[in-house]
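This section describes the prediction task in plain terms. A model, or a person checking by hand, is given the sequence of a single protein chain and must write out its three-dimensional structure as a string of tokens. No templates, partner chains or ligands are provided. The sample shown here is typical of the held-out split.
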Amino acid sequence: MNPVIFTIGTFEIKWYSVLILLGVFFGYYLLQKEAKKYNYPNDFIFNMFFWALISGFIGARLYYVVFNWDLYRSDPLSIFKIWEGGLAIHGGLLFGFLTIVAYCKHYHARLFKITDMVALPVLLGQAIGRWGNFFNGEAHGIETTVQILKGYHLPNFIIEGMYINGHYYHPTFFYESIWCLIGVIVIWLAKRYKYLKVGQLTCIYLMWYSFGRFFIESLRTDSLMIGGFKMAQVVSILLFVIGLLAFMILSRKSKFEDLYNEPNHDEIRF
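The expected answer:
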């Protein structure tokens, strides 16, 4: 696939950048819409989203660079060429979360109410952004055959896009994108549960994404490694366990205690 949409002089507009921006746009739209239901100030949400986004991009890039330092050692300036790919979602989630923690603490907002609202937009953004990997010809899986890919009833353009240097590969970007989209539906449905506790949407996000990523990562050929283990799988196990334990603890609260759908009572000093 051609990673470039069009060129203006020497300036190239790439699918990777555009798709990430689309994920950001739709994610922010959904977050703002959800926050409005609970009377969070627009400026509070916008500023939080902005700083979490910036730190998330920095974290995603640093995480990737640290585990691929040999690729950048001889040309450190290439670290800034994020349009060429090379963002690790777990680094972005970590830095973005830490920013939200600091932001909520500063403005006296309830952290897990905010992360609950963020869960669905983040998952949708991930689903959209993964398509940038497709156009860059990266983040694909192990070698396979065209017969196997056709057996999965994949769209033909995806199958042909996975024909790289004379071989067919598993479109792991597509598997993850679909998994995230299904997760969006799961979280959307969970939000309608009458007795949903604050924090449980965050837990569902952690469990859902981590479960899928663990198995999808087993097919990846470009995994970041720690020792002899795939880093994404190690992190996925950790986050899944955290999400499961937290969900179980929250479920022990009384039926009408701390409900997500209750009006917001945060005294935000913005």
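For orientation: The mean pLDDT is 94.
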